[in-house]
Design brief:
This protein has 13 helices and eleven strands. By secondary structure, the chain is of the alpha/beta class. It has a single domain, classed as 3-Layer(aba) Sandwich (Indigoidine synthase fold). Strands 1, 2, 3, 4, 5, 6, 7, 8, 9, 10 and 11 form an eleven-stranded mixed sheet that branches. Helix 6 packs parallel to helix 8 (about 140-150). The chain starts with a strand and ends with a helix. The structure holds pseudouridine-5'-monophosphate and manganese (II) ion (MN). Manganese (II) ion binds next to loops.
Length: about 300
């Protein structure tokens, strides 16, 4: 599979010399946000990670390769091109073989990162168990990837477009540690807290780095999910955003949207319904995750000094 990897010289050098590296996904660019905010967000994430002393590695499928490290021009391509494939685990082989342009989800970004040797990954929100599970049986491949692939993911929890208690149950069943970074409850993406208690809270990146090292030394496979609340000043009114999310879920139901289209549809509808307010919050929580992931990667690199 290494034959399919295409690392930039910067990422390659960083990995060879043990410098901290942070992976970033591309579905959030191609399917998670509108243009041009998506490309601005992608560039700014890379800048924030550098500012913290780590190397950013945005991942996408381009020309039949898993490209690790994207130039500004590549980011522009991912942001602008119509019809980019949303590549989750089941789509991976086809995206490579067909040489189509593919945006990687949390699941496939983890796969690419693991292959390259990157241990940390920042995103906005992960996929999970969808609402109405009993009927639709929709569980994101992100959750199983977290269970088996050794990449540690910093996110802002998940949105209530998902069934949050079932998402947590699933992660527990699969043995995925879920850390609340400075929080006792699962951050609910647009808001800092939720009614769902987490069983593990850690208040410093050093403690998280030590836990990750212990997990590796124990030979436990899979990732750690670090849930990082949106900064206070950007968090939204819970009642307001919950209402908008419920409306979006109803719209998706009525329109009969299912499968891989459901998350992009819901994200787009929520942005429209909140007149862009949710997009502004989304962008800020991603920046905060990029920053914490970089700090964590630096803390981990320092363990071995
Ligand atoms: N949640 C967001 N923004 C996103 C996604 C989820 O707030 O962009 C994307 C991520 O790439 C995630 C994917 O991995 O959606 C999950 O899609 P699915 O449920 O089809 O697995
Ligand atoms: Mn799904």
């Amino acid at each position: 599979m290494k034959n399919y990897l295409d690392l930039t010289p910067e990422v390659k050098e960083a990995l060879e010399t043990g410098k901290p590296v942070v992976a970033l996904e591309s579905t959030i660019i191609s399917h998670g946000m509108p243009y041009p905010q998506n490309v601005e967000m992608a560039k700014e994430c890379q800048r924030i990670i550098r500012e913290q002393g780590a190397v950013p590695a945005t991942i996408a499928i381009m020309d039949g390769k898993i490209k690790v490290g994207l130039s500004d021009e590549d980011l522009e391509t991912m942001a602008k091109t119509q019809g980019v494939l949303k590549v989750s685990r089941r789509d991976f082989a086809y995206a490579i073989a067909s040489k189509k342009l593919g945006a990687t989800t949390v699941a496939t970004t983890m796969m690419g990162a693991a292959l390259a040797g990157i241990k940390f990954f920042a995103t906005g929100g992960i996929g999970g168990v969808h609402r109405g599970f009993n009927e639709v049986m929709d569980v994101s491949a992100d959750l199983d990837e977290l269970a088996k692939t050794n990449v540690n993911v910093v996110c802002a929890g998940a949105k209530s477009i998902l069934d949050l208690p079932r998402t947590l149950e699933y992660l527990e069943t699969k043995g995925v540690p879920v850390v609340g970074y400075g929080t006792d409850t699962l951050p609910q993406f647009f808001t800092r807290e939720s009614e769902y208690k987490l069983n593990l809270r850690l208040d410093s990146v050093e403690e998280i780095a030590e836990m990750i090292r212990a997990k590796e030394e124990l030979g436990l496979s899979g990732g750690v999910l670090i849930t990082n609340p949106i900064p206070e000043e950007y968090s939204m009114d819970k009642k307001y955003i919950d209402e908008k999310i419920n409306e979006a879920v109803e719209k998706a139901d009525e329109a009969g949207i299912v499968g891989k289209d459901i998350t992009p549809f819901l994200l787009k509808t929520i942005v429209e319904e909140t007149e862009g307010k949710s997009l502004a919050a989304n962008i800020q929580l991603v920046y905060n995750n990029a920053k914490v992931a970089a700090q964590l990667a630096v803390a981990y690199a320092n363990l071995n000094k």
